[in-house]
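Email to the structure team, subject: ABC transporter substrate-binding protein model.

Hi all, the expression group asked for a predicted structure before they design truncation constructs. Nothing fancy, just the tokens so they can compare against earlier work. One-line instruction: predict ABC transporter substrate-binding protein, return tokens.
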Amino acid sequence: MFKLKGNTLLILVLSLVLILSITGCKKEADSTNGDKAKDNPATEDSHSNQDDNKDEEKPVKVEYANGASDSAIKIGTVGVQSGPLAFIGTPYFAGMEAYFNKVNEEGGVNGRKIELIKKDDEFKPDKSVQAIESLVFDEEVFAIVGHLGTPGVMASVDIVKEEGIPSVYFGSGAATLTEAGENFFPVQPNYVYEGKLMAKYAMDEFNASKIAVIYRNDDVGKDGLDGIVDGLKALGKSDVLAASDQLAYNAGDTDFTVQVQKAKSANPDLLIIYGLGGGTAGILKEIEKVGFNIPMLTTYSNADASFLAMASPGAPNVITNLHVMGWLDVSEAKLKPLNDAMAKYFADVPVNAYTMAGWVAAETFVAGVKQAGDNLSWAGYIDAMNHLKFTEGLAPEISYTTGVREGVTQMAISRVVQQDDAFIFELLTDFNAF
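Reply from the structure team: attached below.
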């Protein structure tokens, strides 16, 4: 053992404190510089400006939402695929799949293949809710695309809204879907808007001085009637609408004697029939029976060859006085990609209005993906859709802005004409907005 004199010990202690202080300051400086380097990659290596510039140019990696990856985008759809209404869902989903097959065969969207999961709800709201829950929570899809049928869409809207998952195109014209939320992107015209445009066409194309409306007594018919009333009011023509309180019918009705007699007694020069499929066909049959043959106008939901095949046998004369609203450009050039894809992938499925609707659902979703690029978070996709203006598809234009969810707003009128032994639709007007 040895002893240090006081002065020597003091010098050593002071030297040790000084060394520790210098070391601590150096560590603190290094730590501070390291944090700054993390905050600002350009300062990470002060000896290489070239490396700094490379770091600054690197794009920020966006975290993908459920169902999206570098190679694929998994989406889900729900609608009737079995039972008596399968004639709607079969061509509808074939049109959707034909478009996705075509896109995938061409390399996908920005290198990503579209994977479609289909769920059958048999057109039952409770089964539709179960299917949506399965797609969102079990399958963890990126988006819901082309949910088919107003009952199912309305039953599950709260789930989709709460989760915030993008929902693109509904096989529905329910007006409430235009206010469902920012993650909803309706495409089909809603029935209220269509009713307004019907009112405009009633004045501009038919020069109507009195209009009668036979309508289905549910959300479909009531929305359409509300739109007609609103449209006529905006045009200053409310007085041309005949009383409509006795002209409603219920879904499932087969006897339309009262409604047609009431409409005929109003002596209108234009009859608007706001109903779907079998109901409208039954009304036409009663009109044929009583010889009430005046110009008629019906909703785009009846703009399909299968409707003509159903309605024309019971109304072979008056059906040529029927006009129908439409929102798709069915010119030969516009339909060629669809016809070619259907011939290749689903040659045994008819190409009709339902097929076209499924195709539009698919091309609208893909247009949004192209707009979003690699920013495939839900927020990124929604933002991309809010800047979309798509004019290359079957619809004249599909566009959205923040807070605006009207769907297609340009529609045209076609009339029914007889061609050889068949009845077909012939375009009568240009596409117009209200």
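The first helix runs from residue 6 to 39. Residues 1-55 have pLDDT under 50 and may be disordered. Ping us if the truncation boundaries need rechecking.
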